[in-house]
Each structure stands twice: as C-alpha cells, then as structure tokens.
Amino acid sequence: MASVADVELEMKRILSRDPSELFQAAWYLISTGGKRLRPRLLLSFNEVFGGDSERAIRAAASVELLHNFTLIHDDIMDKDETRHGVPTTHVKFGEPIAILAGDVLQSESQHEMARAVEGLPMRRAMAILESHAAITTDIARGQTLDMRSEVMDYREVGLRFYYGMIKLKTAVLFAHACWTGAYLAGASGKPASAARSFGLNLGMAFQMADDILGLVGDPQITGKPVGSDVRNGKKTLPILIAIKNLSGSDRVSLLEKLKARDPSAVDLIVKGGGIEQTRSFMLKFKTQAESALRSMPNGPALEEVRALLSSAVVREK
After folding, report:
1. Domain range spanning residue 145?
2. What CATH number should be reported for the domain holding residue 226?
3. How far is 87 from 84, CA to CA, in rounded Å?
4. Considering the entire predicted model, what is its pTM?
5. Is-contact 194 296, C-beta < 8 A?
6. What's the pLDDT at 315?
7. Preceding peptide of 19 cis, ω within 30°
8. Where residue 60 falls among pLDDT bands split at 50, 70, 90?
9. How large is the average pLDDT for residues 183-195?
10. Which terminus has fewer CB within 10 Å in the chain: N or C?
11. DSSP codes, 78-146
C-alpha cells in the first residue's frame, strides 16, 4: 500500500524548482507537518477498492497541495501569524510571495491530478478532473460565508447558515478525497457515493471538533489560547447553541461578552450546553460516516479508514 511518505516525496519533487524563494514558500507550510488526513483517506479508499498505488500517490499529493493552498490564503485573509506553532507563510516570506506560493500550489495541484488520471477511460478521468476543479470554488464560497459571518450579528447566524458554511469550507474537500480514492480505483455508483458520503460526514464532524477545541482546547497542545474563537469573532456551533439555549441575564451577558470578544464568554457557552451539544452533533455525524462503510469490502484498508475517522473526531489539536 502507498504511504504518506510517498505522497510527501512526490510533493517535494513537484516543488523543487526555481525561483527558490517562490517554491520554498510553497513547500514551507507542508514541511512543518500536519495530520495529512486527506491524502491518508484517499490512499486508504483507493486500497479498499484495489486501485493502482502510483495513481493514488499523485492524486493524494494533488489534494494535499490544494489543501495547503487554501491554508496559505486563509492565513493571509485572517491575518494569522502562526500555524502548527510556526510563523505563517506570509509572515515568514512576505505577503506577495505567499500569495504567489498559494497560486503555485493550486496550479500544481491541478497538474498533478491530470497526471494521476492519465490513461484512464475518458469519462472517468473527466469526472475526477471536474470534481477537483470545482472544489476550489466550493472552498472559496465557504470562506466567503465565514468572512460574512464575522460581520453579522450572532443572532443572525442560524444553524442552517453554519452547516452550509462548514460543508463548503471544510467537508467538501474530505468528501472529494474519499470519492477520488475510490473512483480512481474503479468504484462507481453506490460504493463511490458511499465514499463521498463518508468524507462529507467526517468533514462535518471534524469541523465541530475544531469548534470545541477553539473554545476549550488545551493551549499547550492546540497552540491557541482558551476562547480563541471568541477572540476572533467566529460564529461556531457551540456559541450558536449557547445563544439559543440561554435566556434572561445569562443570554444578555453572553451576547455582550461575544460582542466585546471577551474570552470569559466560554464559561457561559459551557453553561448553555454549547460544548456538550456540539459534541453530541459531532458524534451523530461520526455515526453517519460509519454507516457509509457498511457495504464496503472488509480488510486492513477499511480498518485504516475507520481509524482515520476516529482520529479526526477524537483529538486534542
């Protein structure tokens, strides 16, 4: 079975070019580590359906390059100064080079996926390329909704808005990775749709886990202070639930603290059931993801998929 190490070698090969300052910036964030969940999932689903390892390595590299493109541009838009405990790309290399590095990653991602599908039947190859191209737009739509939410009143952001935002911003790339791994291996119809459904539900649960960590995660592990999402004005699920659940002076106080971006709002979010109920929603999406695997061939690769689901949801950072 292909490994994440193979994917990292492929990405390093792609980004070992001149001018050095541009490609060093493109490689920088990748080199700092990360969970590599998306390429792991693609490789595992490809293995579940008996696909070609070389194709899968290229497709997994393509997905991870695209993911890192979004991280670089997100950090610029959010004015974040650190990621993975190190300076962000625009802080280390300057904003102009960081923007270009993100552009390079997006471009190389498309090129690498084209190489991955080379030689496949035309209809299958085009379906993968079309899905991959559409993901960038979906993520941009999700990021736009996230930015829009930051200037909206907390009471204007409902659960429907939130679910639509995280689906586009986070879950669709997981869904694409899982579906691509399966479809690249020859799966179609219900098995391929099940792989996409698994990824979508995992992605929703993953974002909810992030929402919890953004409020009550251990700063020594997450690298972010307690209540970081309150400080940044984020409209995350625990906050929305607490606003809905609290009443009277507690609700008034929570809204005032949120408006002031006061991290002590976390106590009221916990009191309003925000953390507990978000965890419940998260586990429901995890269960739905598990259900999508029932019809798939059992074996070590499917066990790896299950392990990746658990690691995506039950985590400390």
Report:
1. 4-313
2. 1.10.600.10
3. 8
4. 0.95
5. yes
6. 85
7. yes
8. very high
9. 96
10. N
11. HT--EETTEE-HHHHH-HHHHHHHHHHHHHHHHHHHHHHTTTS-HHHHHHHHHHHHHHHHHHHHHHHHH
